Every structure is written in C-alpha cells, then in structure tokens.
Amino acid sequence: MYMIDTNRFMNIVLGLTLAAGAFVFLVTLVLAMFGGKKTSRVMSYLYMLSGIFGVFAVVVVVMGFRGKKSDGRPWHIFLDMKYQPKYTSQGQSRFFADGRSNRLPVQNTIPFDGTDYIADAGYHDGPNPAFLKADARYFFGVANPDMKDKDGVPARPQWKDGKLAGDGFFVNHIPAEAITHAGGWKPLITRGQQQFNVHCAVCHGASGRGGGGELAYGIVGEKGLSVAPSNMVTPEIQAQADGQLFNTITNGVRNMPAYAHQVKTQDRWAIVAYLRVLQYAAGNTK
Is-above-0.70 flag for pTM? Predict the structure, then answer.
C-alpha cells in the first residue's frame, strides 16, 4: 500500500471518472438525436448523470489534478486557524517608530538559547546553562538527589569526629561557583550581610536570634505578628548543611515563606555565608 504513489493513483481515478462521464455524455447525445420517444425514460436518467459528471468535470478543470503545483494561495473552505491577525516575517508595523515588526532583544540582555543572528544582546552558540539551571549544586543546593529515606526525607550529611565527612542530599558547603561569582569570601559575606538585613532581620533580628515577645530580636517576633521566628545561631541550625539552609531560604519551611521570588540565587548563598558568620560570633565555632 505504501509503495503506491497516492497522487498518481488519485489522478487515475479522476481520469477514469472523467472518461466515464464523457462516455455517458456521448451516449446521451446519440440517444437524444436518434432515440425517439421510446427512450424518454432512459434519457431522464442520462441527463441527470450527464449533469453530475459535468459538474465534476468543471470542478476538476478549476481545481486541477492532485499533486499540481501552483504559486497561488491555496483554497481553504474551512479557515480554522490558518489566517490570524499577526505579523509575518519582515512584515511592517505601524506600532513601532522604525516600522519593523521583528524586534531585536532588549539591549544588554542575554538570550537563554542560541540565535541565528548577532543582535544587540550578543550571540550564543547554544543554551545558556545559567538559565537552564543545569548546576543542581549551585541553583538548588542539592548534591545527591537520590539520597532519601523510604519516606522521601532528604538524607542528612555524614559526620565523622565532629566534622562533616560527606554530602548527604544537600551540599555541605557553599559551591565554589558562588564564591567565584562574588569575587571571593569577603565580598560574598558583605553582600550576605546586606541581604540578610533587608530580608531576614525583620524576623530573626540583626543577630539571627529570632525569638518572640520581650525576648525577640526582630520586629515580627516583638510585635507578635506570627509565631516566634527561629533562632538561627543554635547548634541545631549550625549542624544543617549549607545546601539545606539555602533550600530553606528558597522554598521556606513551616511558617517561614519562600524567598526564591525576591532573593536571587547568588544572594541566597551570600545570606548562608553571613549566617555562618553570625553562628561563629554567637560562640558556635565548630
């Protein structure tokens, strides 16, 4: 079946149909001239068939045989979504001052995927890994995504002689990319202090001690606007891997909301770095 040329097959069918129509028309013409009154009943059927074949022949002449090529626009009986109000390639637009409908990327922006032209935003040979978040350690703080217990709880880091010995589910330490991107530890911690004071101190206080009521270090806890924010400089919090702290800032935990929508990835790592400084300042030196 798949070896048959469908265009040729359908054209043969059309040709045979037209030939049958021509034969019926010829018979009708002969009987109309020499048949007499005895063929009047037969003639009525022949006239009907001739009319049907005649209409079919006109349609074939107008539309052509199957596979015929044309530079004209195709005929669409049912438009569906073939024609929409849109700008075609290199079409003119009166909306923009320069008249172009195809817009260049915004100046100084970087496309996340490759382009076929060199525009104001620059040229890419392939996808931007930063946009695709291909580095799970940097963008998610995850070291071993398969390390979970039977209940799906992320595995804790491995400890030996009171020190971290291996990554669990989360990365134990801030990824090197975050440090490099900041330009070193000092700029990273400085940025972390600034971001901590903007986003975190309102609840946990400038020292990170949290609390509520008269013992509160932050405005939220002092005014009783929520449950007492956690004390971030306790040994229990310090024992968490850097990736877990990063994940908490990203997705939130318990009554703490997620901050991924307002704190950039790099700044979240900076906050983690500054939080370690606060924990060290509180006397947790391990």
Answer: no
CA 188 to chain centroid: 31
* Of 278, 246, 238, 244, nearest in space to 263 by CA: 246
Q: Looking at the chain, how many residues does it have?
A: 286
Distance CA 229, CA 232 (A): 9
Q: What are the backbone dihedrals phi and psi of residue 233, each rounded to the nearest 5 degrees, phi first?
A: -110, 20
203 is written with which tokens?
A: 């609840």
d(CA 231, CA 203): 10
- Measured CA to CA in angstroms, residue 263 lies from 140, 179, 256, 270 at distances of 13, 17, 14, 10
Angle between helices 265-281 and 242-251 (to 10 degrees): 120
Kindly state the tokens that stand for 14.
Answer: 């059309």
Supply φ then ψ for residue 142, to 5 degrees. Answer: -105, 130
Each residue's pLDDT tens digit, 204-252: 888 887 777 777 667 776 776 677 778 888 888 888 889 989 999 998 8
185-199 vs 265-281: helix axis angle to the nearest 10?
A: 90
Q: Name the residue among 167, 160, 164, 172 with its Cα closest to residue 144.
A: 167
Alpha-carbon separation of residue 165 from 17, 154, 244 (angstroms): 84, 17, 16
